[in-house]
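fwd from M.: "can u put these together and see what the complex looks like"

so here's what she sent:
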Amino acid sequence: MARFQIFVTYKKGIFDPPGATAERALVSLGYDEVSSVKIGKFIQLEVADGTSEERVAEMCGKLLANPVIEDFRIEPVEEA
Amino acid sequence: MRFGVVIFPGSNCEQDVVHAAEVLGHEAGYIWHGDTDISGFDAIVLPGGFSYGDYIRCGAVARFSPVMAEVIRFAERGGPVIGICNGFQILAEAHLLPGALLRNRGLKFICTQTTLRVEENSCQWMDATPGTLLRIPINHNEGNYICDPETLERLQGNGQIVLRYCEADGSRAEGGSAPNGALDDIAGICNERGNVFGLMPHPERVVDPAVGITDGAVVFTSIARRLAEVV
């Protein structure tokens, strides 16, 4: 079995309401050093051995992320 | 005419659409999301609700259900398709309409009456005079329309922005009149051809005179008039 981690985030310039709310909340809690919070999705994928990263990218482009508003980053997980 | 109303697992406004169609003297029938035969219907409605629990993104899973391949083919042949609320989200995910619907600015689910201004009437689903005000409720968590600047320019230039949120007097507030933060106060858009229409407000809920407002009827009567002309 192979594992991949996928990070889905909003594209630059796309307003992120949960991130903006968390940012305001942190500042109001006194964390004045906070200048930006972006909230995205973290996906753990298990696939058959030998599955290529290209294939995973295809899954992201088709279903797991919406390329109109989101970027994704794929990281293969090395087995310990 | 006969409306086909698609039911996805989690749809919850399909009966309202059928009721609205019948109140207006039309026929309507249901289409199950697993069906691949949508013949016998003059127009297809993707109703509101929470298809597939809104998992991944609203409409992201519904867009791949078996019926959608047929709906996409129907739309590409020029068949009239409307997506209301969750249906709009599905049309956007299916790339039948440009852009996407993000979570509401303010993070709140919003259920309220809105005033909409008819901006264009080249859309087959809207033949009211531009400037007409419609009172139609919204009921959603992800109605914050977004698209890139080039797409916005194209939508504007082609007359694809059909409905905008506005104030009760028809003006647009400086900080925006969209309760959900939608770009350019956009409430509903159509494709270039004008046969595919997506909107966040629920016209089907304001059709029956029993509820006091009938401003939503124009959406259904527009397409009926249009199809009557064509036939």
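replying to her w this: The mean pLDDT of chain A is 94.
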